[in-house]
Amino acid sequence: MSSSREGIPLLLFVAGDAPRTTVAVQNLRLALTEFRDKNFQLEIVNVLEDAGRAIADRVLVTPTLLAPESSRRLVGDLSEKSQLRYFLRTIEGR
Predict the structure, then answer these.
(1) What is the pLDDT of residues 22-48, one digit of tens each?
(2) pTM score, whole prediction
(3) E strand spans, the chain
């Protein structure tokens, strides 16, 4: 395994500052603190500002967490901690 690894990309699609957006961002940031060894690179995409990106990635509802390299996604406010941890644990980088 290379030490110069760029990181594993994660995209969190949200709609503005809706309550579910706030909860999803908080839940994800908290969970990521447990997975520092995986070096996730989080990008938050506001679909109200970049609808084309959501369309290109086939995101129909928000919040949606997408792992582009594996095409895996998790939909909702990410409050189900066991699902979120499983999602993050099973994503592999290149």
Answers:
(1) 999 999 999 999 998 889 999 999 999
(2) 0.88
(3) 8-14, 40-46, 64-67, 72-75
Compute the distance between CA of residue 18 and CA of residue 78 in angstroms, rounded to an integer.
14
d(CA 93, CA 33): 17
pLDDT tens sequence across 40-71: 999 999 999 999 999 999 999 999 999 998 88
Give the pairing of strands 8-14 and 40-46: parallel
* CATH 3.40.50.620 for the 8-90 domain, yes or no: no
